[in-house]
Amino acid sequence: MYGFMKFNISAIPSGATIKNATLHYYVGSNLSQPRNFEIYSVQDAGDTWNEASITWNNMPALENARASASFIPQANKWYALDLKPYISEEYSSRNKIVTLVFKASPPANTTNQWAIETEESSHVPFFRIEY
Description:
Number of helices: 1
Number of strands: 7
Strand order of the largest sheet: 1-6-3-4
Radius of gyration: 15 Å
Mean pLDDT: 85
Strand content: 35-45%
Number of domains: 1
Oligomer: single chain
Helix content: under 10%
Low-confidence stretches: none
Order of helices and strands: EEEEEHEE
Distance between the termini: 33 Å
Largest sheet: 4 strands, antiparallel
CATH class: Mainly Beta
CATH topology: Jelly Rolls
């Protein structure tokens, strides 16, 4: 199971030094078993995907694992994940659109699913970037 998020970091001023970059996401369901996932990057050309049309057959190729986490989701709770090295690298390469691909590890099945609330909810995932 994969989940895709895209963020625009073009508001970071030229020449800035990234001090912190933390992804904040909200999980609305309570689960009793640990959930493991990795976050992957995609090639710059892969940042053109659209949430209305992305499918298994046309999703961008995964590049490198940038972070991993393991947690037991608790209902109605915010979580944070440090992605400073990845965001710093993207900013340094002048890539202003950042795609995050969440990949369940091991691959999701009916006992390894969980959901992050999206932009359509009242708990929109966001980056807190300090520079």
